Amino acid sequence: MALLSEIWVLMQKDFRLEWRQRAALNGMLLYVSSTVFVCYLSFSSRGGQLPAPAWNALFWIVLLFSAINAVAKGFLQESRGRMLYYYTVVRPQAVILAKIAYNALLLVGLALVAFTLYSVVLGNPVQNVPLFVGNVLLGAVGFAGTLTLVAGIAAKATNSSTLMAVLGFPLMVPMLLLLIKVSKNALDGLEFEASRNSLLTLLALNLIVGAVSYLLFPFLWRS
């Protein structure tokens, strides 16, 4: 219970900081909306309607780069003095789990906003919406867990932004392949059974990332 209490307090701190510094959140929303609008202008000659494969690919591209921009600031905005203060009052597991939980909620919100804008501006070719939304939620949580751990590692280096991009993208490829596969099934209107194994694999990957973060972050914290 003490760990959960520490996680909740740290998440509240992140929410308060985000609300006071709304420029970053507004920037992410602007990035998503402007990207959707550029896609609409690019395909306006086709009546604003993208082919389903292009719609699917662009959606995950937008979500991936939005996730990288959103999660990267999680550890980079923490000063060294603040991190030393955390070291004296909370456990390292609480720090990493709180960051993952906060980033997961943030990315879920961004993903739902992106899906809504896509549906309004570019049409909604998804035939199995519950499957697609569930896949998006798993993807947002997976992005949050993987990129948060990578951001924690990169924060210890001098050129942290470059290191995060170098480490993060290869780790995201297997997850992206599964996400795109399930999204394609949702676009085609296939039933849940056709995507069950992929969804269970995504869930397992999310649990593995959470377990690895819980076990390894204390060693990174002490370095």
From TrEMBL:
<feature type="transmembrane region" description="Helical">
    <location>
        <begin position="200"/>
        <end position="221"/>
    </location>
</feature>
<dbReference type="GO" id="GO:0015232">
    <property type="term" value="F:heme transmembrane transporter activity"/>
</dbReference>
<keyword id="KW-0812">Transmembrane</keyword>
<feature type="transmembrane region" description="Helical">
    <location>
        <begin position="23"/>
        <end position="43"/>
    </location>
</feature>
<keyword id="KW-1133">Transmembrane helix</keyword>
<keyword id="KW-0472">Membrane</keyword>
<feature type="transmembrane region" description="Helical">
    <location>
        <begin position="96"/>
        <end position="120"/>
    </location>
</feature>
<dbReference type="Pfam" id="PF03379">
    <property type="entry name" value="CcmB"/>
</dbReference>
<protein>
    <submittedName>
        <fullName>Heme exporter protein B</fullName>
    </submittedName>
</protein>
<feature type="transmembrane region" description="Helical">
    <location>
        <begin position="132"/>
        <end position="155"/>
    </location>
</feature>
<comment type="similarity">
    <text>Belongs to the CcmB/CycW/HelB family.</text>
</comment>
<feature type="transmembrane region" description="Helical">
    <location>
        <begin position="162"/>
        <end position="180"/>
    </location>
</feature>
<dbReference type="GO" id="GO:0016020">
    <property type="term" value="C:membrane"/>
</dbReference>
<dbReference type="GO" id="GO:0017004">
    <property type="term" value="P:cytochrome complex assembly"/>
</dbReference>
<dbReference type="InterPro" id="IPR003544">
    <property type="entry name" value="Cyt_c_biogenesis_CcmB"/>
</dbReference>
<feature type="transmembrane region" description="Helical">
    <location>
        <begin position="55"/>
        <end position="76"/>
    </location>
</feature>
